[in-house]
Specification:
13% of the residues lie in helices and 35% in strands. It has 657 residues and is mainly beta. It is flat and about 85 Å long.
Length: 657
């Protein structure tokens, strides 16, 4: 099976013919060095062709294999918010790989925490055994593979959250040229990890092994950790395990080939305790609400006392909410609601539903929607179509002007938090009902990919009398006003890397309202967004057109410390008349005005902030749009400017002086 490679064979034959058959001590020094060099691993990625799934600016993939670990500019960066971040290196030959050295970060900080290394031997990509990390804290990592691999290419995959850049200074992989004289160990697959719940206490594990240059002569299962179990069929590919108890048991499958080389793989069996009995998991938990009567707080509805209650504030809008924080993941099966002022009064909610937190948005729980509940029906129980596992539950009251709840009981037990991608409606605008303002919502296309990534938030206000939603709240208008209109473009939807909320000031079903947003209600909407989506609180922005532009300026004067930047478009007010206008000086502002729509307004405001609000220039910039009037020729042009979003999404509250 083993054959001497031609180069080494020639050298050996030369010695035998010229010097006879020497003993080991008589091997010439040159031959000894040659044989040693063949056996010593070298960096096989150095200066090899490198390509990447994405690249940020000048930080090219070839910099990750140029041998320079000292220069910060010599690194590969894929950029943020790219769902796929792969670095491929063509080894330009076939090598037996044994270890890697990875140098990451910026200067001596920001290591890549989670990554995987793959290899391709000509049959497709496979993970390199022992080369992956999930909790790395070092900018320099040396890893010896748990099993050598034969490869033609290697691939590095960054798994850090999407908001983090993956900075690779160098990826060095060490190995030796592949030759048939090296026995390839068998490749073992012990099968997928399994999970069971007591009283189930047995599993069947199905594994196998292959040998690329020979045959597998034996298989052997052993238990390496966890509560002891009884094994049957340990010398076959199929292992029966019985007597499992709560905990995680790890089993190893070992294969031996016809040259005595071994390969191993491990599989874990996680055994969960028998489910606990269902209890009221809402009792005494932290709660909050969209609004509340000052004397009837939300905590009254989870105190176990049916003589107390939560009552909302007075609202013309529907869809007030009541949130329960469960503290950890719980499997919730149903709910009982005690409604109204007391058991016999006729002030019960007529329409409501329950929602669960999905890790990035709220989702209606199937089986929980109630319509047409009689006002004298003060107790209503709902059983969900299927249990939901969640950390938070929300009651949405669709009545107005008041919602009254004496007690919310949630029937559940502890559960296991999901690590799967979220399932929010991303990449398109959707209608959301809210107690402040109903709104058009856009979540970035990559929003669901990573449960840990938080995204910038843009609140975009329409003008006086404008709208973003249909009057009957059947959906987003086909041609809404303002920033919301840009989402009719597929390319715009693809490039937008922020959560965008475009509230509709006009009341549902009547189309009434002036279009003049309330300061308090806009900030309350921001607080709602923090509860409802994964918002990066360091990057919250406000923009608006015409009357909405006025509101963005007025809001920033009052709440400049909460905003990272504002973009007033075609504003009509004179903010310099406000005694607190200098609050705007340090706030990044980009004002847009049409050429035929009082074009001096943004410039006048900037001059005022530059010259009358202390030393130094303000953080404001102004753009006059040629040919723009007080209509879409100005605001549609402004919101279609790509440079606006490049600038806006770089602004952070924490960067301000």
């Amino acid at each position: 099976m083993r054959r001497i490679p031609s180069r080494l064979c020639t050298l050996v034959m030369g010695v035998l013919l010229g010097c006879g058959a020497p003993d080991e001590a008589g091997i010439p020094e040159a031959l000894s060095r040659q044989a040693t060099a063949l056996a010593e691993p070298i960096n096989v990625t150095l200066h090899k062709p490198a390509t990447a799934s994405s690249t940020q600016g000048s930080f090219l993939p070839e910099y990750a294999v140029d041998g320079d670990i000292n220069t910060d500019d010599s690194r590969w960066c894929p950029g943020i918010y790219n769902e796929t971040r792969l670095l491929d290196i063509d080894l330009q030959g076939t090598f037996d790989l044994v270890r890697m050295e990875l140098y990451t970060g910026f200067r001596a900080d920001r290591p890549i925490k989670s990554y995987e290394l793959f290899y391709d031997d000509g049959t497709g990509w496979k993970p390199v055994p022992g080369a992956s990390q999930t909790n790395n804290t070092s900018v320099a990592v040396s890893t010896t593979f748990t099993q050598p691999v034969t490869a033609k290419k290697v691939r590095f995959s960054c798994k850090d959250p999407l908001a983090d850049n993956c900075r690779v200074k160098e990826l060095w992989v060490f190995g030796t040229p592949h030759g048939a004289e090296v026995n390839i160990p068998p490749v073992v697959n012990a099968g997928p990890d399994q999970a069971i719940t007591l009283p189930t206490h047995s599993v069947t594990l199905r594994g196998g092994a292959t040998d690329a240059d020979g045959t597998v002569v034996s298989l052997s299962w052993t238990q390496v950790s966890g509560p002891t179990a009884t094994l049957s069929g340990a010398s076959t590919a199929t292992l029966s395990v019985i007597g499992l108890t709560a905990g995680t048991a790890v089993f190893r499958l070992t294969a031996t080939d016809d040259d005595g080389a071994i390969g191993t793989d491990e599989v874990s069996v996680t055994v969960a305790p028998a489910p606990q009995a269902l209890t009221n998991v809402a009792l005494g938990k932290p709660v909050s609400a969209g609004s509340s009567n000052a004397t009837l707080p939300p905590s009254n509805a989870v105190d176990g006392n049916l003589s107390t209650r939560w009552e909302s504030g007075y609202h013309f809008q529907t869809h007030n909410y009541f949130d329960v924080e469960l503290g950890s993941a719980h499997e919730v099966h149903g709910a009982t609601l005690h409604l109204s002022i007391n058991a016999t009064s006729s002030y019960a909610m007529t329409a409501f539903e329950l929602q669960s937190w999905d890790g990035g948005c709220w989702k209606t729980i199937p089986g929980s929607v109630v319509e047409g509940n009689p006002t004298n029906n003060t107790q209503r129980s709902v059983t969900f179509t299927a249990p939901v596992t969640t950390t938070k539950v929300r009651l949405v009251c669709k009545d107005q002007p008041h919602c009254r709840l004496r007690e919310l009981e949630l029937s559940g037990r502890p559960g296991v938090a999901s690590t799967a991608p979220t399932t929010c409606s991303a990449g398109q605008q959707t209608l959301v009902r809210n107690v402040r303002y109903d709104y058009a919502l856009f979540l970035p296309q990559q929003y669901n990919a990573d449960r840990t990534t938080r995204w910038p938030l843009i609140i975009a206000l329409h003008g006086l009398g404008g709208a973003t939603l249909a009057t009957d709240r059947s959906g987003v208008l086909a041609n809404p006003e303002g920033l919301a209109r840009q989402f009719n473009s597929a390319s715009f939807r693809t490039t937008m890397k922020a959560i965008v909320i475009s509230p509709n000031q006009r009341l549902p079903f009547s189309n009434s309202g002036t279009g003049w947003f309330s300061n308090d209600a806009v900030m309350a909407l921001v607080e709602d967004a923090k509860k409802d989506y994964r918002v990066d609180t360091d990057r919250i922005y406000l923009t608006g057109l015409s009357g909405g532009g006025n509101r963005s300026l007025e809001q920033a004067i009052t709440d400049s410390g909460l905003l990272a930047a504002i973009v007033p478009v075609a504003f009509t007010s004179t903010p310099t008349n406000d005694a607190n206008v200098c609050n705007l000086k340090a706030l990044p502002i980009w004002g847009f005005q049409g050429e035929f729509d009082a074009p001096s307004r943004p410039g006048n405001l900037k001059t005022w902030l530059d010259t009358r609000c202390g030393a130094g220039s303000s953080a404001m910039r102004a753009t006059v749009i040629p040919g723009g009037r007080h209509d879409g020729s100005t605001w549609d042009t402004a919101y279609a400017t790509p440079e606006l979003y490049d600038w806006l999404l770089q602004q952070r509250r924490s960067h301000r002086p």
